[in-house]
């Protein structure tokens, strides 16, 4: 496979904050329809890596190619339009709007809340909202005010809002933090379904959850990749046990 066949090709990526390399000459490839989990100790650079891919932070050196488009100098909104979706740790839903309205405003045609609400709710948007609501397990909650949802349901709604844009790469930073055991199970199922149509990168600490969802695991440490491969291989790696799993 050549490097141009990957959905995401990160090569020799570095970012320095006042001389400190939070990401240090990192190379990583993500396949189409791959679910990759990134693990590693606090401060390893996991969140910074996602920031660099989505454009929240600018790279100091190296290359990030998405579907063979160079991203490093591209504005954040253009990366979104190319098909990159990013879920942050704190959900950004509109608490006083219904589930339906939250999904509706995320339809690519209407980017601002007011623009999208003024925009006529045609059949195409309605059908899409319904399909996504089904996917995220909120089909019977369409009229519920988002603020009244459980913590887990709010996380799923935000995932749904990202799915409305049909991203080809979806990135999630610690999506199950604060979820109940049942919500974690449902989230694992959701992520497994979602990656059938796109690449997914998940940062996660919960090893039982990682084992359940990961195709491959990347272990980061001090801005570099410490180990990469199937969960069983990574888990048995003495370097990984030493810096992360042993603690
Ligand atoms: P992780 O998500 O793996 O816990 P982060 O990516 O959040 O780690 O952080 C990696 C390192 O980079 C940390 O030492 C953090 O303090 C530093 N860092 C992250 N963002 C910035 C920034 N904007 N300015 C300075 N230092 C930063
Ligand atoms: Mg982090």
Quick summary:
The chain has 10 helices and 10 strands. With 247 residues, it is of the alpha/beta class.
Structure characteristics:
single chain, 247 residues, alpha/beta, Rossmann fold, 6-stranded mixed beta sheet, 24% strand, binds magnesium ion
* Pattern of helices and strands: EEEHEEHEHHHHEHEHEEHH
Helix proportion of residues, in percent?
25-40%
Shape: globular
Largest sheet: number of strands, sense, barrel closure: 6 strands, mixed
Structure write-up:
By secondary structure, the protein is an alpha/beta fold. It has a domain at 1-83 and 199-247: Rossmann fold, CATH 3.40.50.300. The chain has helices spanning 46-54, 76-82, 99-105, 113-118, 123-135, 151-163, 181-194, 207-213, 231-235, 238-245, and strands at residues 8-17, 20-30, 35-39, 61-66, 69-70, 84-87, 169-173, 199-203, 216-221, 224-229. It is globular and about 50 Å long. It starts with 7 loop residues before the first strand and ends with a helix. The chain binds adenosine-5'-diphosphate (ADP) and magnesium ion. Adenosine-5'-diphosphate binds at residues 17, 22, 40, 42-48.
């Amino acid at each position: 496979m050549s490097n141009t066949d990957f959905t995401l090709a990160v090569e020799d990526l570095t970012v320095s904050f006042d001389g400190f390399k939070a990401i240090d000459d990192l190379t990583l490839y993500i396949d189409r329809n791959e679910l990759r989990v990134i693990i590693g100790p606090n401060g390893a650079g996991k969140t910074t890596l996602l920031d660099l891919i989505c454009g929240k932070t600018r790279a100091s050196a190296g290359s990030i190619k998405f579907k063979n488009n160079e991203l490093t100098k591209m504005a954040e909104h253009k990366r979104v339009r190319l098909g990159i979706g990013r879920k942050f740790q704190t959900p950004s839903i509109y608490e006083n709007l219904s589930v339906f309205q939250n999904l509706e405003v995320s339809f690519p045609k209407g980017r601002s809340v007011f623009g999208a609400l003024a925009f006529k709710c045609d059949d195409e948007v309605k059908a899409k909202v319904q399909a996504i609501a089904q996917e995220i397990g909120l089909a019977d909650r369409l009229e519920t005010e988002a603020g009244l949802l459980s913590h887990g349901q709010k996380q799923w709604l935000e995932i749904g809002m990202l799915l409305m844009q049909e991203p080809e790469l979806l990135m999630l930073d610690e999506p199950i933090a604060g979820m109940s055991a049942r919500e974690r199970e449902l989230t694992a199922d959701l992520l497994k379904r979602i990656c059938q149509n796109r690449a997914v990168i998940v940062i996660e600490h919960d090893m039982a959850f990682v084992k359940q969802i990961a195709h491959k695991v990347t272990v980061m440490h001090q801005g570099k990749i410490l180990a990469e491969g199937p969960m069983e291989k990574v888990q048995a790696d003495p370097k990984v046990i030493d810096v992360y799993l042993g603690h």
